[in-house]
Design goal:
Number of strands: 0
Structural class: mainly alpha
Oligomer: single chain
Helix content: 55-70%
Strand content: under 5%
Distance between the termini: 127 Å
């Protein structure tokens, strides 16, 4: 049996002479409970369970830890399956806000490009209609082909500036002025070519071009196939089209072969339709490659050139078919 000295003290003795070393959880009467341990970003700042007992069973006060509150800086942050940090709701809100802002910027960019493209196509097809349906204008264009070559020189010069020089392409209003000159030059060229064909062939070409453009736009916004990763193949196709065009021009200069002319025009229409798909997906921006939202002039220019070339190639096919 243990002695009296080993037995617990009476309540009055405990109040006068507390023995915290023997009874770790004994506190003075009326004193508040010790605060819970405080966490810190420094792993060794607070006591471990082993050091808790080595110091007489007394929890460290909050002032013993340098930082109040638990910090994530010393812990690995778990990530979601998409690689997003799951650190706090605030950071997740910021991420989704940035995603929404990026999407809204892209949508505004697409609307701006298609607005500019609509104006360009309206000007071009208005010129084509005048050169086709107004007989005196049609005769004037055919009589003075030098204006066509002058417009071609302006077209090529401005096109090189807009494609190769970033500063004029992005500086407002210089970019719109250059794009307007380019549109007028290419519209005159398209109208001059249309004046050599029958009215029926021009109308058919306009209708087919509109159907192709609408179908390509809907396809690009719906498909999951990434055509932006096929830029090398499209470059090869463009080189082949150039070679076929040179060979066709040489052959047709000696003897006109309708089926050869139609074949070349059909190949050209198909290749430029693929270019239209490629540039439209660059515009949308949810593929491997994308156009910067600052390049709205470049986006409108690319789509416009593709559509006009599709129209001219289809016009050659329809013109050869209606002869």
């Amino acid at each position: 049996m243990s002695s009296k000295t080993d037995s617990p003290p009476s309540y009055e003795d405990a109040l006068q002479h507390p023995k915290s070393n023997n009874y770790p959880f004994q506190t003075q009467h009326g004193a508040p409970l010790p605060p819970p341990p405080s966490y810190s970003s420094s792993p060794g700042a607070c006591l471990s369970p082993h050091s808790y007992w080595s110091q007489g069973g007394v929890y460290p006060q909050a002032s013993m830890c340098p930082g109040a509150g638990f910090s994530l800086s010393a812990m690995p942050i778990p990530t979601l399956s998409a690689g997003l940090p799951a650190s706090s709701p605030g950071e997740m809100d910021d991420f989704f806000s940035n995603q929404w802002e990026s999407t809204s910027i892209r949508h505004a960019f697409i609307r701006k490009v298609y607005l500019i493209l609509t104006v360009q196509l309206a000007v071009t097809f208005a010129v084509v209609a005048v050169f086709t349906f107004v007989h005196p204008v049609k005769l004037f264009v055919i009589t003075y082909p030098a204006i066509y070559w002058a417009s071609y020189a302006v077209f090529f010069f401005v096109y090189c500036i807009l494609i190769c020089c970033k500063e004029p392409r992005r500086r407002f209003p210089l970019n719109l002025v250059l794009l307007g000159i380019f549109t007028i030059a290419l519209s005159y060229m398209a109208g001059s070519v249309s004046s050599y064909y029958q009215t029926k062939a021009v109308i058919i070409a306009m209708g087919i071009t509109a159907i192709v453009c609408i179908a390509v736009t809907v396809f690009c916004f719906q498909t999951k196939v990434d055509f932006t990763s096929c830029g090398g193949l499209l470059c090869i196709a463009a080189v082949l089209l150039m070679i076929i065009g040179i060979v066709t021009a040489i052959v047709l200069s000696f003897k006109y072969v309708p089926w050869l002319h139609m074949l070349y025009a059909a190949i050209g229409a198909i290749i430029y339709t693929l270019f239209l798909v490629y540039n439209t997906q660059l515009l949308i921006g949810n593929r491997e490659l994308a156009i910067s939202p600052e390049e709205y002039i470049y986006g409108a220019l690319s789509l416009y050139v593709d559509i006009v070339h599709i129209f001219l190639f289809i016009l050659q096919v329809s013109g050869a078919a209606t002869e």
